[in-house]
């Protein structure tokens, strides 16, 4: 452990192997518990109806059901995934929710007539490229109340158990033929399945009110997402 850079260095040998550990793997849980810093700040838990009535800007935990995930795609109008979406259709749509962008700022890179990616002029001389998940709009509901939440690229990756976009076509572990793309599709299908358990969502909200406290504008961004296990885990309170 590098105390100056606050990073962990892993040294490999010819006999070392690499395996992806999902967040619910006991080995991943044990490993992260050793390095997780304790925090004393708490975020208020609220239901969606109460939160919308209070019209407070800030950070809050909401328990709600995810009903739809819409991903804007330049080549098409949008990709809309919901409880009616089949596992096959979700699997087929995954390549379209990934884009190649600047590895420094995340800007999507266009291609020229020869299908060569153009440079990100704002970050020159940096020219590295990286694959990203496209940001999405998540619709969540709690009874009759419903809101749309902006989900950034990093949160999309976390929802997919930190499966990197460039892993989608890799097999999980030979000799298995199951790919990370199949796992990601199954995760989204389970998340959106009708009648599924609600999730605890950590949101940042912004309410712009008029002189009568009526909302002129409201925006919601997803900061984190946790399965509903009665109470949010320690990381939900950071």
TrEMBL record:
GO terms classed as biological process: regulation of double-strand break repair via homologous recombination
GO CC annotation, single: nucleus
Sections of the chain in a coiled coil: none
Span of domain Shieldin complex subunit 2 C-terminal: 63-226
InterPro entries, A to Z: FAM35A, SHLD2_C
Pfam families referenced in this protein's UniProt entry, alphabetically: SHLD2_C
Name of the protein: Family with sequence similarity 35, member A
Native source organism of the sequence: Neovison vison (American mink)
Recorded name of the encoding gene: H0Y2W3
């Amino acid at each position: 452990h590098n105390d100056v850079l606050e990073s962990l260095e892993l040294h490999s040998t010819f006999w070392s192997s690499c395996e992806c550990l999902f967040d619910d793997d006991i080995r991943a849980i044990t490993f992260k518990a050793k390095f997780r810093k304790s925090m004393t700040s708490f975020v208020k838990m609220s239901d969606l109806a109460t939160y919308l009535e209070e019209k407070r800007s800030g950070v809050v935990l909401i328990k709600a059901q995810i009903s739809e995930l819409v991903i804007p795609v330049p080549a098409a109008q949008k990709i809309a995934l919901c409880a009616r979406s089949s596992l096959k259709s979700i699997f087929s749509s995954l390549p379209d929710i990934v884009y190649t962008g600047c590895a420094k700022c995340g800007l999507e890179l266009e291609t020229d007539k020869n299908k060569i990616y153009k440079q990100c002029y704002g970050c020159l001389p940096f020219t590295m490229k990286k694959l990203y998940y496209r940001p999405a709009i998540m619709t969540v509901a709690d009874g009759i109340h419903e809101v749309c939440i902006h989900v950034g690229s990093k949160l999309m990756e976390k929802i997919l158990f930190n499966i990197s976009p460039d892993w989608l076509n890799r097999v999980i572990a030979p000799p298995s033929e199951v790919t990370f793309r199949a796992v990601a599709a199954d995760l989204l299908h389970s998340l959106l399945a009708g009648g599924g358990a609600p999730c605890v969502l950590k949101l940042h909200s912004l309410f712009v009110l008029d002189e009568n406290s009526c909302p002129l504008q409201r925006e919601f961004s997803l900061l984190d997402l946790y399965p509903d296990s009665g109470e949010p885990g320690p990381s939900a309170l950071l």
